[in-house]
């Protein structure tokens, strides 16, 4: 691993002269995350569920009960899938409940665990109650609870990755939550569009389009902020996922916006593209983090620059 | 509690009268001879398993690679084409004089410089690993060190990318994270950590942090006077991005040459910004939902 890294750097250095930086045999300075592929998929399912829950409450308040049912189903199913995804990613899954030993605001994962622990039963309970007519009063209370917690479930995952030493995540800390919010909204709107009769799905289609716009705008802002550091979003797997995500999201939003109201097939196809775009965006962010952790230049160069900006001599 | 108060207290809180003087390492790399006794002693004492198959990296004498779940001390070897600041004794001239031959111009001041450095967990004052740990498995001991409670860790892996030095890692086949404990068990019995005990040159010095800092200041001053202008202390000062290291170093070149970050910052310093951005984005979610619904049914 290490000697390959060094060789790679030398080869590249011969072809494209890079800004000078020094390293220890080209080896990484920080560790890549230990997380597995369940994690970006949880970002997707958790975000979709998180945005669907307040959407269900809002639909209910405007008397659109078919839409509320669709959104609630997405919220319940999304959370139900999220919990096993997260637990299976642990190195010691049987100790998942250790997450609830402490309540720790410096740890987005701690706060997220509590949010998910409250959201899970509420969203699943509300969805089951609504679908089968069991304990409707309690179901409505659960619906409101999940609607209140939902928005935080959409964006804490961005806080989680931003609160690391991974350059491409940490330096995007101001924009990343908005990227995740947009992605969550787009997927929630798209999923509810699929599960709701076309006549009642207008707000879902609008949510999908608004979410896609937020997502694409936030991604652009994030790339502007990152500048040279954003290179992983244009290279390797992250680059491929990022390009695909943006294409799917833009095309899906356009399809839903232009033809989604009149043509059911357009709404369905557009929603499918938006769901794919949302998931691919999470994968892009996830992979970009690994790529930026692997190369010491993303750690050394900005830290050198910050030292020089502070006018300090190297330690 | 306001957002700006978020970072957890670093030391002294929670132990009342039980708190001990903060203990740490001062690793003086200028006298490291690269014997790796620290690596061996650490493995032996802490029963750390093998860290993968034996392999030769080709990177000087470093076949350990990096700190990780099963490597809590790592000796780095750096070969530099740089004139050596040789001691006053000119060996070539001395040998020539002894054999009666005519001495050539001394060559000793040209050639290669060999840097060696034993790396370890920094036991940061602002320890990101500890602050992001969602189970409380990572904690600060009464000696001010940072230790993983192995019966609590559930292997969530959050500390791994949080560490700005790439120290802590999840162990394959075990699932939990591991790193240097600064020999917590030995400290409890008033003994020095195994690596410091084994170090034959006292490159690794253990003691109360205050004392080590004074010693380091004296040492770096002496090196500067002796002409080693490159000598510098790394992570000694409390005003750096991690509030200073419980383990700090005397280096002879820039930190990144040793595989260390030049200006590490604990990610949790930015936690208020992170939470604010997440809250604003959650507000956008609510706004978007309301906008979509009030726009009408179609």
Which SSEs are present, and which pair or pack?
The complex is a heterodimer of chains A (about 325) and B (about 300).
Chain A: H1 2-15, H2 38-61, H3 65-89, H4 108-132, H5 136-162, H6 167-170, H7 176-195, H8 202-226, H9 236-259, H10 264-294, H11 297-309
Chain B: E1 23-28, H1 37-46, E2 73-81, H2 91-99, E3 112-120, H3 128-132, E4 138-140, E5 146-148, H4 159-162, E6 169-170, E7 177-178, H5 184-188, H6 194-198, E8 204-208, H7 209-225, E9 232-234, E10 247-251, H8 271-294
Parallel strand pairs in B: 1-10
Antiparallel strand pairs in B: 1-8, 2-3, 4-5, 6-7, 9-10
Molecular structure report:
The complex is a heterodimer of chains A (315) and B (298). Chain A is an all-alpha fold and 315 residues long. Chain A contains 11 helices and no strands. Chain A has helices at residues 2-15, 38-61, 65-89, 108-132, 136-162, 167-170, 176-195, 202-226, 236-259, 264-294, 297-309. In chain A, helix 2 packs across helix 5 (136-162). Chain B has 298 residues and is an alpha+beta fold. In chain B, 27% of the residues lie in helices and 16% in strands. In chain B, the strands form 4 sheets. In chain B, strands 8-1-10-9 form a 4-stranded mixed β-sheet. In chain B, strands 2-3 form a two-stranded antiparallel sheet. A two-stranded antiparallel sheet of chain B has the order 4-5. The longest helix of chain B has 24 residues, at 271-294. Chain B is globular, with a radius of gyration of 24 Å. The model of chain B is unreliable at 1-10 and 102-108 (pLDDT under 50). The chains are: A mainly alpha (315), B alpha+beta (298). Chains A and B meet through helix 1, helix 2, helix 4, helix 5 and helix 7 of A and helix 3, helix 4, strand 6, strand 9 and helix 8 of B.
């Amino acid at each position: 691993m290490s000697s390959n890294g060094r060789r790679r750097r030398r080869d590249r250095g011969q072809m494209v002269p890079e800004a000078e930086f020094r390293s220890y045999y080209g080896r990484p300075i920080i560790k890549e995350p230990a997380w597995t592929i369940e994690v970006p998929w949880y970002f997707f399912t958790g975000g979709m569920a998180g945005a669907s829950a307040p959407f269900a409450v809002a639909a209910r308040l405007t008397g659109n009960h078919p839409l509320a049912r669709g959104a609630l189903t997405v919220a319940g199913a999304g959370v139900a899938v999220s919990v096993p995804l997260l637990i299976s990613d642990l190195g010691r899954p049987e100790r998942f409940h250790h997450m609830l030993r402490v309540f720790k605001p410096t740890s987005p994962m701690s706060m997220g665990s509590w949010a998910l622990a409250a959201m899970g039963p509420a969203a699943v309970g509300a969805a089951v109650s609504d679908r089968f007519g069991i304990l409707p009063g309690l179901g409505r209370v659960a619906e409101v609870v999940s609607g209140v917690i939902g928005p935080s479930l959409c964006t804490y995952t961005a806080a989680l990755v931003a609160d690391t030493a991974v350059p491409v995540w940490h330096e995007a800390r101001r924009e990343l939550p908005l990227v995740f919010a947009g992605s969550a909204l787009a997927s929630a709107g798209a999923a509810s569009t699929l599960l709701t009769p076309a006549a009642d799905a207008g707000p879902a289609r609008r949510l999908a389009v608004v979410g896609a716009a937020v997502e694409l705008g936030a991604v652009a802002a994030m790339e502007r902020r990152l500048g040279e550091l954003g290179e992983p979003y244009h290279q390797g797997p992250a680059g491929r996922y990022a390009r695909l995500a943006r294409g799917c999201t833009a095309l899906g939003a356009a399809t839903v916006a232009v033809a989604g109201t009149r043509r059911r097939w357009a709404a369905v196809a557009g929603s499918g593209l938006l769901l794919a775009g949302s998931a691919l965006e999470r994968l892009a962010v996830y992979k970009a983090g690994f790529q930026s952790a692997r190369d010491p230049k993303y750690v050394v160069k900005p830290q050198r620059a910050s030292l020089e900006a502070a006018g300090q001599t190297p330690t | 509690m306001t957002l700006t108060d978020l970072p957890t207290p670093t030391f002294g809180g929670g132990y009342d009268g039980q708190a001990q003087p903060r203990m740490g390492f001062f690793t003086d790399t200028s006298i490291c001879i690269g014997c790796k006794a620290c690596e061996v002693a650490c493995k032996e004492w802490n029963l750390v398993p093998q860290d993968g198959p034996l392999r030769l990296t080709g990177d000087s004498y470093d076949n350990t690679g990096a700190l990780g779940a099963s490597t809590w001390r790592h000796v780095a070897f750096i070969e530099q084409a740089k004139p050596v600041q040789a001691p006053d004794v000119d060996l070539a001239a001395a040998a020539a004089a002894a054999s009666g031959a005519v001495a050539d111009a001394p060559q000793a001041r040209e050639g290669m410089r060999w840097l060696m450095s034993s790396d370890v967990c920094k036991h940061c004052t602002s320890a990101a690993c500890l602050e992001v740990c969602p189970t409380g498995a990572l904690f600060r001991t009464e000696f001010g060190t940072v230790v993983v409670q192995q019966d609590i860790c559930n292997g969530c892996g959050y500390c791994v990318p949080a560490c700005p030095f790439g120290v802590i890692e999840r162990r394959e086949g075990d699932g939990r994270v591991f790193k240097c404990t600064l020999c917590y068990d030995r400290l409890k019995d008033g003994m020095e950590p195994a690596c410091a005990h084994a170090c034959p040159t006292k490159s690794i010095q253990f003691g109360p942090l205050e004392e080590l800092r004074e010693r380091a200041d004296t040492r770096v001053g002496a090196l500067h006077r002796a002409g080693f202008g490159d000598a510098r202390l790394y992570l000694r000062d409390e005003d750096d991005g991690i509030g200073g290291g419980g383990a700090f170093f005397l280096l002879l070149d820039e930190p990144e040459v040793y595989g260390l970050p030049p200006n590490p910052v604990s990610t949790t310093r930015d936690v208020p910004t992170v939470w604010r951005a997440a809250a604003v984005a959650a507000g956008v979610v609510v706004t978007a939902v309301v906008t979509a619904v009030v726009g009408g049914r179609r």
